[in-house]
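Help wanted!
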Amino acid sequence: PDLYHSSTKPRDAGTGAIVIIQKWYRGYSSRLKARQLRALSIFQSIEYADEQCQLQLSTLFSFMLENYTDICQADSELVHRFLLSQQHLRERQNFEELIGVSQSYTGPQLNFPLTFIDIDYVLQHFMKNQILHARYVTEVLFEMKKMLMRKPNFNRIKSHGRDITICGDLHGNLTDLFLIFHKNGIPSHNNLYIFNGDFVDRGKNSMEVLMTLFVSFLTCPDYVHLNRGNHEDSMMNLRYGFTKEILHKYKIYGAQILKTLEEVYTWLPIGTIIDNEILVVHGGISESTDLNLLQRIDRHKMSSVLIPPVEIRDQATKSKENKTGESATTPERSKANASSSDHLSKHEWEQVVDILWSDPRTKNGCYPNTCRGGGCYFGPDITAKILSKHCLKLLIRSHECKPEGYDICHNGKVVTIFSASNYYKEDSNRGAYIRLYAGTVPQFYQFQTTSETCLKPLCERCVYSKKNSEHWVLKERIISQKTDLTHAFQLQDHGKSGKLSQGQWALCMESVLGLQLPWRTLRPHLVNTDNDGNVDYLSSFQDVHIKKPVQEVQSTVIETLYKYRSNLEFLFNIIDSDQSGLISIEEFCETWKIFSSHYGVPSDDAQIEELVKKMDFNKDGSIDFNEFLKAFYVVHKHDTLKPD
Amino acid sequence: MADDRDREEAVVAEFHKKIKEAFEVFDHDSNNTVDVREIGTIMRSLGCCPSEGELHDLIAEVEDEEPTGYIRFEKFLPVMTEILLERRYRPVPEDVLLHAFEVLDSAKRGFLTKEELIKYMTEEGEPFSQEEMEEMLSAAIDPDSNSIHYRDYITMMVIDEH
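Answered by r_m:
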């Protein structure tokens, strides 16, 4: 029988039906694509706003430095711990003796120097969802420090006809790394690799990704090149998940691993130059980028983007002394101090931050990267200028998630390469890597780890995709600003009707949340609209609320703590110098006071103290701050599961 | 009378903002132009379902006299606003879509096999490209039976959108 048309139906009905389906499908798929792109930009806006928040903490540190002598005795000890996290690193031998390996450990037992078999052992082990023993992690880290110390600030590669593969951000996505090694081969003398930073944070296998890269490097340090990214920074790890992962997986050994890791980060080279033609750095450049200066600096002194450089501190001290009428530190003395100190000068520090944090943009010129709070936006004219100044032809960088895993801009002079697929959530983006073949143009290879959803039966699919969607994440943001938003809405609502026009609603959302998003398109997902097209602005808050860990406390206090929980988590982690996870009630309240006074956050200190005391369930005067902060989360009405 | 005019102006203003938002998603260089190949996607993302033929005509309307491969927002906006005001190219209701599948499934099994769907979509009507076909299959196909249970598929697409 004819497959297309049944004998009882005319030919036209068949073709007509097909066109109906095709039209519908194309409409559906376009809407999906537009939604995915929008979702990406929403996630990205939120991510950058968070980064900006994080970097603003560096002004908190400067503030504390400035007011060091004003703060009373109890606080100054706190401030001391905030600022001087350099604990003395224990000798390697002593440390290794302390970590015994039990009989039951079935994983790889590494012997140095490492060989290709070790790469294989480690990969096999990780594929079984196992972790590398703390003993070997520590040994790998010590060896890394030893080897990296010999490297110059910029890796210099001569291709000599060999292929070079460049990978971008991996962010703890182990499956992506496996995929790349599977498709592209493991590193060897004929298969060179450059990993362009951001190996860790956000993904759940940051440690395994890092160990795989480090083991590969230690096996063939001339064929694997690692560039530092902005997440190879122990302060960033505190906020973005790697510190937590280490403490969870390695428990009592976690603290020492973190300290050693901090040092290893500072020894990572800040970039790679291929054949004196191609510059590979994690973020980008600025109009003042001076590769000659960058090759001379002591990169080891760059501990974290959050530790302000010396000159800012000297200026702070100077202004303090001026206030009290004593003689000021002269600028010349400041500079002299700078060069002999443990830190980079302000100019050097800014040069490194630009390399690690900048983003290319279409607009000409160089201006501060206000979204992220660090580095610059640089235009095609800056690229042309800097590349020609240093006789280079191409800049390859990473740092930004792209839907296709890569992007080319600035007339082909800047390439972005991003290797973490599904970075924000399932299906958010592809990952990619570049293979530079000798004598031809670079080739891009894309990939995306399989959507788990596709393997589920149809009825289960839609429910799965709702959680952690961009709307979900936005709603959590919205509820955390409920007080400010309500205030803004009510200011506009002259008739006290509970309703605003769509335009007014969009304006309030943008100004309070500080996120430039397509509010009108998002509106149906976030709020109810009546038949006249007016927005019932309070309906945003209807199906979400913040869980109250203790009933007697005001909602506004809960909201404030929820809103700032990431910053607080970060600050607590810093003062918790022995990484026990516990801080005293006094320390909590002092930290909160410093934080809220600096940021001008209105807070009822008495209520907060009471809340904290109530959450000290075993009444021993200390609280587990991770447990404490986890107790504040957003409950979505239609979701019965607690967040991860 | 004046009220009606005000209301229409307000509606048009809102449409303008919506169209701008949809356009900006694809304006990668932030210079108020998009690649002509994305126009179909933008129009469809605004809720329209033109056929490929209708799209072809629309593109001719919004292109510059000397086609550059890019469409400028200034030309796109008035045309798209008219389309939205006149509610042109509305998507067919769900039951019409279901009926279309049923016409193809003459044996009334409740599903189409993978081979059947491929044949229909890539050889008839306004044929799918290979990429479009693969995309549709990846979401529509039931991996166990290698067939498309179209009723469930439609339900899923509808829920997904809302």
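OP: Thanks! One thing I noticed: Strands of chain B lie at 33-35, 70-72, 112-113, 147-148.
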